[in-house]
Amino acid sequence: MLANVNGIRINYEAEGEGPPILLLHGNGEDHRIFDRLAADLKKDHEVFSIDTRGHGESEQVDSFHYSDMVEDIAALIRELSIRKPLLYGFSDGGIVGLMLASKYPGMLSGLIASGPNLNPKGIKARFRIAMRLYYAFKKSPLVWLMLNEPRITDDDLAKIDIPVLITIAEKDIILISHAEHIADKIPGGRLIVVPNENHFSYVSYSDKLFPLISGFIEECGNSNKI
Are strands 164-171 and 189-198 parallel, antiparallel or unpaired? Predict the structure, then answer.
């Protein structure tokens, strides 16, 4: 389905019934990476699997900024009258989730972010070097995004007033110390380090993610009912 929000067409799928959950994919992907996760979640939740701008079947764009993605998701929540959803975001989706929760208090009931970073230096140096080399040849706007954004501050994190779970893989492209910093600076934030996994392996098209986050999702749902 397509929704016209924030001056752009955003594609999403909605399935299941119950407390709402939004799923946001990472850089260069689309909502289909969550097919296995959505299959588990839709048994007890209404699941909105979203293609962010320039990805999947959403409207294509020439340049990317996380701030635009944040406004897209905020507008989609309003357009579809989704009441206090929990948001799960992977990589870029987690960045968008952090920024959304900071800018719009009360919009979400909870947030899970897998492998997010606050700024490009949160990415391990060897991966940043590889990205720079790739960008030098391909001039990809999606790679430009990762090399130049986001710019989330500790003050931004301190504004987040909902439960937040950060997950990071033992072999992630994001520094574990960076993930620890994110969780530490969010009031009520917590961190899970996933052993023997890389940035993508436990998230994309994987059945490992639901058992990892299901307890936190239940906690957020119960706290929202009080």
Answer: parallel
